[in-house]
Design goal:
single chain
C-alpha cells in the first residue's frame, strides 16, 4: 500500500505491506508539494511505481527485486548507437546543440575530404 504524508513540510511517499510485520520502504523523500506540477509529479510516481510492482509481482524496493532489475538491465539494456547531445557538445567544445551539429558536420566533411585524398 502506498501512502503519502507531510513531515516537516515535506511530502514523503512510503510503501507499507498490507500484512503486519513486513518491512516498509521509503519510495520518495521530498516530493514536489506546490505548484502546477505537484499533482502530476505524484500521479506519475504512483503510476510508475505500481507498474513496476505489477511487473515484478513484488515490492520494487525489495532487495531481490532490485537485483532482478539490475541483472535484466545489464543483460537487456540496448546499447546507445549515438553520442548524447551533451557528449557531442563536450567533444567539439561548444555551448549549444546547434553549434555541436555544425561542428560535427564540419568534422565529417573534413574526414571525408581527407579520405578522398584532397
Amino acid at each position: 500500500m502506498l501512502y503519502g504524508q507531510r513531515v516537516n513540510g515535506v511530502v514523503r511517499v512510503t510503501d507499507v505491506p498490507l500484512t503486519p510485520g513486513g518491512r516498509a520502504y521509503l519510495v520518495e523523500r521530498e516530493l514536489e508539494e506546490e505548484g502546477p506540477n505537484a499533482n502530476a509529479s505524484l500521479q506519475a510516481l504512483i503510476a510508475d511505481y505500481l507498474g513496476q510492482a505489477r511487473r515484478l509481482q513484488r515490492c520494487p524496493l525489495e532487495r531481490d527485486a532490485l537485483l532482478t532489475v539490475a541483472r535484466a538491465t545489464r543483460m537487456l539494456a540496448p546499447r546507445a548507437t549515438k553520442d548524447s547531445p551533451f557528449a557531442v557538445m563536450v567533444k567539439y567544445g561548444v555551448d549549444t546543440w546547434p553549434e555541436a551539429i555544425a561542428a560535427r558536420a564540419a568534422a565529417r566533411r573534413e574526414a571525408d575530404q581527407h579520405a578522398a585524398g584532397r
